[in-house]
């Protein structure tokens, strides 16, 4: 029998700790969350029997079609995500692996997360009202808007809230709806000045939109490339940078004008 060389003995000795490290990596929790398409909600519709958007101090229109805000659903912040979960997530189109601190920037305390998300939603709603009224030249002193969608957190519904307010108050400006009777979905933060910002998780949100009947998806222009990676068949992307730009794009879609594309 040939003598065991020094190199072979070294490799054999290293194999055990390497195998142990690989096994530990497979089963050890990792700082990631798994996300999937979440719920969508029509901001022109009702929630628990009450309109999502209520306007007082100004006449509102009866609208048709839907404007759906979109979300992602992530694993619990305390969930143990192992290497096998991460690998599985990379190869699935209906699931995404995201850094846990990107999904839960305030840590893993459920109460703190809930407070943070609620505060972000309230801020989003407030800026959406300011953006919509500013776009229409209406004064907040004369028009009061109340938004009801308390069980969805975060800032990413700002654009859709603002569009819903514009549609309720003015439509497309010629007697028609911004939606043209379609189901329009989208995502994006918004500033009081009407600027639309990126949100993350867009590929999953496009899947949620298609699942719930949308034919058009409004995406922050900065996230066009992300939105195209897993774009469901039959869902049209429209990039937007501002609220006024989103309104103009929807009008063009309805009346045969030039519609922006990713």
TrEMBL record:
Upper classification of the organism: Bacteria, Bacillati, Actinomycetota, Actinomycetes, Kitasatosporales
Swiss-Prot/TrEMBL keywords: Signal
Leader sequence segment: 1-35
Protein name per UniProt: Lon proteolytic domain-containing protein
Pfam families listed in its UniProt record: Lon_C
Domain (Lon proteolytic) ranges: 154-244
Listed InterPro entries: Lon_proteolytic, Lon_Prtase, Ribosomal_Su5_D2-typ_SF, Ribsml_uS5_D2-typ_fold_subgr
